[in-house]
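How a chain folds remains the central question behind the approach discussed here. For one protein, we set the task of working out the C-alpha cells from the amino acid sequence alone. The sequence in question and its C-alpha cells are set out directly beneath this paragraph.

_____
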Amino acid sequence: MKILIFLLNFPWTVIGLLTSILSVPWSVRFSKNPPAIIFYIRSFWWCRWIPRHKGIRAMATGHVVQMSKWADDLDLKHEIIHVEQFMRYPFISGFLLLIETIRHGPYPPRNKYEKEAYERAGNRFGYFVGE
C-alpha cells in the first residue's frame, strides 16, 4: 500500500524536488515517519509572485518539505502534517489543497487543511515578513 501511495504522489514529489533545487538548498535531512525529504533552503524567490505568499517560512509538496532560514521546529511539524495529508489522500491531495486555497485563502480558520496543520502542530498563525 505504501508503494502505491508513493507512486500516486510521485508527480507532487517531483515538483517539490525541482522547487527545492531552484531554492538553492544548503542542507538535506530525511524523515522516516512520515517518509519525507527535508530541504533547508536559502529562499522561496520563485513563489513571490503568488498573492498572499510573501514571507513563506516552509512548504510541503508531496513527500518533500522545504524549510527557510526563518523556519523553526513547529514549522517543520506543521509541514510534516501536510506530508501526512498527501499520504492520506494520495495524488488528489495537491488538487484538494489548491482548491481549498483558491476558495478560502491559504490560511486558517477557513482553509481546513491549514487549520488541521496549525492545530496539530501547535503553532500560531501569523504573517511573517522575512525575505
Remarks:
- The first strand starts at residue 25 and ends at 31.
- The CA atoms of residues 51 and 106 lie 10 Å apart.
